[in-house]
Amino acid sequence: MDERIVNLKVQFDNDLNNTENVSDLEGIRVSYLGKKGSITELLKGMKDLSNDEKKAFGQDVNIFKNEAADKIAAKMQELKEKEIEAEIKSMPYFDISIPADLSRGSYHPITLVQRQCEKIFRSMGFTVEDYSEIVTDYECFESLNIPKHHPARDMQDTYYLENGQLLKTQTSAAQNAIYLKYKDRLINEGVPIKAIFPGRCFRNEATDACHENTFFQMEGVMVDKNISISNLIFFMKTMLSEVFQKDINVRLRPGFFPFVEPGFELDISCLICGGEGCPSCKHSGWLELCPCGMIHPEVLKAGGIDPEEYTGFAFGLGLTRLAMMKYSVKDIRDLNGGSLKSLSQFTDDE
Ligand code: DAH
């Protein structure tokens, strides 16, 4: 092999071994393989050689050139990895066991209203129940006196899962489980069933300022001997007056829900005008807030409770709607939008 090639090879290996960072290596690449690099220059010098010499020389230089390119690429990889490792090592140590600075966060307005309702109902002897978001058709409909093909199902455009279960469209879906859970205590020990169960519900709704496919409700039930509509009115009035921190009047209008009989729409006196009539209540003095009613005998039966002996009331408070009213949120999408700027301005009254 031509001496010039041998010498350049030695020099190249030397240079490569002495390179410790990516930018120096890039310099070496240019100085050997660039347009004016030493290997390229070798090829240019071939013109003075004989034809036979040219062939062998050309081949040797090309092999050297390829080897050099491969060696540079390998070294580049090695140096980059080393640089990343060094960078990681130089990072400040992150201790995940240090408690977070919670003063920076804030509760979502729906969480605030939910907790407030829970607190009020707990103080009146209700238990707060948690229930799954995925339920069976039986829980969400059949046990609530809504058989298959009942027109009431049309009101709740339901997300069904492939296994036949569904995303609950209403917190009422937990009623059956609650009755079954507490019925023995009611029947054997005379302890009334008093439970609320807040939860996320899902319906296939087109989204606009007032509708979302995901929203929160809070269901409440009370079952005992001699429970009447007056009990229902008392609990709702007490709860709402606490939530809004003022005396709230309520009225009941007839409403239809297959799982209550009679069923009602509960209206509250307008929060803005107090009942005088204003644009926000469309001059009626009332705002529609909470459907409710006396639990249907079939629903009690499905829960293992004898409707001849026990009666009860149920209500389905729209928590999302309540939060919007309490905090004057005009567009429901602001609640799910995740903008901290708008969501972090709400605080608990207490
Ligand atoms: N689950 C009903 C809905 O989402 C609301 C409802 C109505 C709940 C009447 C009740 C009730 O408990 O008694 O449309």
Write structural notes for this entry.
This protein has 350 residues and is of the alpha+beta class. Helix content is 42%, strand content 17%. It has 12 helices and 9 strands. The protein has helices spanning 3-17, 22-33, 38-44, 51-90, 109-123, 137-140, 175-189, 229-244, 297-302, 319-326, 333-336, 340-343, and strands spanning 127-128, 134-135, 166-167, 193-202, 214-224, 250-254, 260-269, 286-295, 311-318. The strands form 2 sheets. A 7-stranded mixed beta sheet has the order 1-4-5-9-8-7-6, with helices on both faces. Strands 2-3 form a two-stranded antiparallel sheet. It is elongated. The mean pLDDT is 91. Bound molecules: 3,4-dihydroxyphenylalanine.
Question: Which range best describes the helical content: under 10%, 10-25%, 25-40%, 40-55%, 55-70% or over 70%?
Answer: 40-55%
- Kindly name the structural category: alpha+beta
* Span of the ends, CA to CA: 90 Å
Mean pLDDT: 91
Order of SSEs, N→C? HHHHHEEHEHEEHEEEHEHHH
The biggest sheet, with number of strands, parallel, antiparallel or mixed sense and barrel status, is:
7 strands, mixed
The unreliable regions are none
Distinct ligands, ions and cofactors found in the model: 3,4-dihydroxyphenylalanine
What strand order characterises the main sheet?
A: 1-4-5-9-8-7-6
Q: Can you tell me the overall shape? A: elongated
Number of separate strands: 9
Question: How many separate helices?
Answer: 12
